[in-house]
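P.,

For your records, the input lines for the assembly:
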Amino acid sequence: MKVQVLGTGCAKCKTLMANARKAVEELANGATVEKVEDILEIRKLGVMTTPALAVDGKVRSSGKVLSPEAIKELLQK
Amino acid sequence: MTATTGAPAADSSETGRTARVFGGLSLALALWTGLYLSVEPLSRFVAFRALGLAPGSRLGAATAFFLYEAPKVLLLLALVVFGVGIVRSFFTPERTRAILAGKRESAGNVLAALLGVVTPFCSCSAVPLFLGFVEVGIPLGVTLSFLISAPMVNEVALVLLFGLFGWKVAALYLVTGLAVAIAAGWVLGRLRLERWVEGWVYESMKQDASFEPERLGLAGRVERGVEAVREIVGKVWPYVLAGIAVGAGIHGYVPEGLMAGIMGKQAWWSVPLAVLVGIPMYSNAAGIIPVVQALLGKGAALGTVLAFMMSVIALSLPEMVILRKVLRPQLIATFVGIVAIGILAVGWLFNAVL
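Structure tokens returned:
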């Protein structure tokens, strides 16, 4: 499983990144977490508001800082 | 509002959940009304009885002013931010884009400025939003109307102006802010500046995927409202308190008319100066309120102060740096120039009329 945090480096994006790391760590399911900062990449995924979260190339949340709990729930669905 | 934030049990039915949300909302609203109504008597009680200050004294007047205004404005802010949070859950950027796609200029400019007020927007998302708008064929001028109105005309600015200076000032700000966004976007559209948009923006137009926002039920929308209160009120309350403290100080101590000479109506050049000083400055609406409060209280003209506030909020260096990724410097300069002229006109108009 590949978790991507999409954002161009604002404070909210950093918080979401930290929350995603925490969620994956707690789930311990071997998922990778990466940050996507390139605007062309972000646009390719169809996102208009950052920060956004994509799982395996599919955007699941946009314009919102999800809590670690919310991310865990999202990853287990 | 804490009644609505509790995590809903996973096994409860949707109707039960809705009923509980309504119950929680009614309770919160009743509590809010009770608090709001008791602010005035409580502030007088604390200032004149508990603290024993004399009602006629400067310290008494300033303290009573602060104890009354601070909770009143914060309560109003919480209520409005909650309401706007719910309204915004209906207006995702994706939906706004769908509404604007296919609209012609003029009507598109008006609609874009209005949608800018209700669509959730953070200037850090300006670039992906700009790309998203342009790629469905929304004209450049219409997109810019949105980008002017979204940060400048917002609920925090309006509530603070309403709470501190009355509904007339808030209404003036709303109407003229929208007018600047509409007119500046329209003019920029007429100028045909597409050649100053970075080439790659139009080259790789086709996006590979589109994001469908989740469907929210009533409970989800209320949750958004509560989140908005936590995030926005949590962030701006120190500025609000600072603004009211400044107001209280002026109320009790500083002689009026101190600023009248340099920022009063007679000094026509004070408006362009205020706009120029405001452009590189960056602050959100709440942060600028203490300054506005201080300037107005000391006799600066309303038009000058509104122009300063608009220029600080609408035009900022950080946002220009962000937009530089998609716009050439010539376009950014033209954009700043035209918006500044619009704000200038607003300032002069008010100083002449009021």
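Two observations worth noting. Chain B has 16 helices and no strands. Confidence is low (pLDDT under 50) at residues 1-11 of chain B.

Regards
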